[in-house]
Amino acid sequence: MTADSYDIVHFRPEHLNDVLAVLAGLWPYGPDLCAHYFKWRHVENPYAKAVRGVVALHRGKPVGFRGYMAGGFRGDDGSDVDVLYPCDTVVAPEHRNQGLSVRMGKLASEFRQSGFRYFINLTSGNSSRPGYVSLGFEPLGKRVLWQRHGRNPFLWALQVWSKRRDRAASPDARHRIRFGRFSDIYVAEDPRAGEMAAIIAADRPDGPALRIRQDEAFYAWRYRNPVRQYAFYYWMDGDVARAFAVLDVSSDGLTGSILDYGEAKDGALRRILAHVCECGDFATVTALSYGIDARLARILDELSFTPVHTTKTIFRRGTVHSLAPSVLFRPVASAINEDDFRVGELDLRSPKHWRLKPICSDGA
Question: How many angstroms separate the Cα of 169 from the Cα of each of 162, 248, 251?
Fold first, then answer.
């Protein structure tokens, strides 16, 4: 087989069954859950009017797929900026080493015609990163893991073990969590979409930046991910939530990872996270640096969080920060010029002009 044996095309509905068959080599979830997951991520997504994906065809049959999860940001002037998170890149084993992944990535630049401005990659690993760099992706800050009491070798090893496999989390993963009302803290199994959106709308900006569009539609969709389990912590003012934090629950229930947060009452977020750290719902709690703003950094420092090495960096020479993988981004364009990096006065090559959170990630 040669490169000329393949056609690279945009996803069409008639590709679905064969694409799901190819994705079975990537997603360890079984056929029914794979179909549900694909529908949630690419069809029900409120930021996508169609599946944003690229397919490699061999003799008319899909043998590769590169999916992009749609998302949205908003500038301080109210302008909307649509983005794509690369995800789900897979090629059937017998068709690998033909350059299909890069070819699919190049065709994805045509999504600019549908209004998407930027690709943001929050999950690239050592094997996939060179391919993204070859496609023109640039570093946008670091992806440093923070862990509470992370210098404790037992707790560090526990979170490594807890996250050792990417498998679907069942509701049983939340067996440690005590749901219910604890004074002014309410722990719930489900999002309060309208109240969460209102909290985000009331949260005070901390400098000019693009911020995630977290409206009620976002919250009604985002936490229906069928392969993840979440725990929702609210600070209650009577019967009304005025602050929240959402934690991803590892499949074994031992680790909680901070994905999303907001407060419309000063000090309420700290009260929530102190409860999370002290109540015993998780054996260990983590956060990712690109989702930590100045306010959250102060809280995490007070609660004894610290940056930690991963299993891929712990035996290498260098600091936690220098060895951490980068967030990657690039404009959605075939030919990139200087204006593509700017939205108004913001130069988006600077991490300070983005307010990312782990809930942006296709892996959350």
Answer: 12, 10, 4
**Phi, psi of 341, rounded to the nearest 5 degrees:** -90, 0
The torsion of the CA quartet 106, 112, 113, 116, rounded to 10 degrees, works out to 130
- C-alpha span between 335 and 73 (Å, rounded): 23
CA angle centred on 37, ends 32 and 40, rounded to 5°: 125
Q: Give the tokens for residue 330.
A: 């690039």
pLDDT, tens digit only, all 364 positions of the chain: 566 789 999 999 999 999 999 999 999 899 999 999 999 999 999 999 999 999 999 999 999 999 999 999 999 888 999 999 999 899 999 999 999 999 999 999 999 999 999 999 998 888 888 889 989 999 999 999 999 999 999 999 999 888 766 667 777 889 999 999 999 999 999 999 999 999 999 987 788 999 999 999 999 999 999 999 999 999 999 999 999 999 999 999 999 999 999 999 999 999 999 999 999 999 999 999 999 999 999 999 999 999 999 988 999 999 999 999 999 999 999 999 999 999 999 999 999 999 999 999 988 8
DSSP string across 229-268: EEEEEEEEETTEEEEEEEEEEPTTS-EEEEEEEEESSTTH
Nearest to 47 by CA among 69, 28, 63, 16: 69
Intervals of CATH 3.40.630.30 along the chain = 3-143+327-360, 145-308
Beta bridge partners of 73: 81, 212
Going by C-alpha positions, the residue among 175, 177, 194 that lies closest to residue 186 is 177
Among 3.40.50.1820, 3.40.640.10, 3.10.450.50, 3.40.630.30, name the CATH number for the domain at 3-143+327-360: 3.40.630.30
What are the strands, taking DSSP E only, across 131-254?
Answer: 138-142, 145-148, 180-182, 185-188, 210-212, 229-237, 240-249
pTM of the model: 0.95
Domain 145-308 has CATH 3.40.630.30: yes
Could you give phi then psi for residue 165, rounded to 5 degrees? Answer: -135, 140
Question: In which residue are the tokens 């930590």 written?
Answer: 292
